[in-house]
Amino acid sequence: GEDVEQSLFLSVREGDSSVINCTYTDSSSTYLYWYKQEPGAGLQLLTYIFSNMDMKQDQRLTVLLNKKDKHLSLRIADTQTGDSAIYFCAERNSNYQLIWGAGTKLIIKP
Amino acid sequence: EAGVTQSPTHLIKTRGQQATLRCSPISGHTSVYWYQQALGLGLQFLLWYDEGEERNRGNFPPRFSGRQFPNYSSELNVNALELEDSALYLCASSRGTVSSGANVLTFGAGSRLTVL
Questions:
Q1: Which residues of B touch A4 (CB under 8 A)?
Q2: β-pairing verdict for A55-58 and A61-66
Q3: Chosen from A43, A46, A88, A105 to mutate, greatest number of chain B CBs within 10 A
Q4: pLDDT category of residue B33 using cuts at 50, 70 and 90
Q5: Under 8 Å between Cβ of B10 and B34
Q6: What residues have CB less than 8 Å from B68, skipping those under 6 apart?
Q7: Which terminus of chain B has a lower count of CB atoms within 10 Å, N or C?
């Protein structure tokens, strides 16, 4: 079946770049999303990318999509303490269903 | 524009009782999704409603049920509560499957259910 995988944890130093990776199995993905969840809160959309694009940049965020390898990444430049959160990757298949990764907890070291 | 609102924020029940959670989508959104997030775990898909119909259901027992009202708000009911039902229940809304584009989900802040 369809699957989305992410590493559970990522630890980076404040000021460095964070790169959160995601792999998926469904070749019929139409859109891929990154959501952020802060402690005790709901999920907030960060960005999304259409499957025929390979890069999207939005301020400190850069999304890279390698459709051949079914690999999606989110780069956060100049990581700040406010970026501490769980980051979820999701892909939307041709049946309009969202398949979610388990989330990557980003830990910022001072 | 008001976001997705969920109520109650917190709910404490005992085993065997029933819980009802409510969700109001963003105005203009016709699809409502329910997810369960147990502590430290990812999102588990529960239910998806669109235009008043149940479109898809996750791998949960029948004691998890819901409905969508004509104004597109939704209710999630959990019967015969068990300890492992303790979780954050998240509702999200979107413009619906017929819309083109990214059809982004907007999430509410969640309802935390504690079963004692």
A1: none
A2: antiparallel
A3: A43
A4: very high
A5: no
A6: B32, B49, B50, B51, B52, B53, B54, B74
A7: N
Do the beta carbons of residue B114 and residue B14 sit within 8 Å? no
* pLDDT tens column, A1-17: 778 999 999 999 999 99
What residue in A sits closest to B97 (Cα-Cα)?
Answer: A96
pLDDT tens digits, one per residue of A68-105:
999 999 999 999 999 999 999 999 887 778 889 999 99
Hey, what amino acid is at A14? Answer: E
- Closest CB to A97: pick one of B56, B92, B109: B56
Is the pLDDT at B98 greater than 60, yes or no? no
Chain A residues touching B45 at Cβ < 8 A: 98, 100
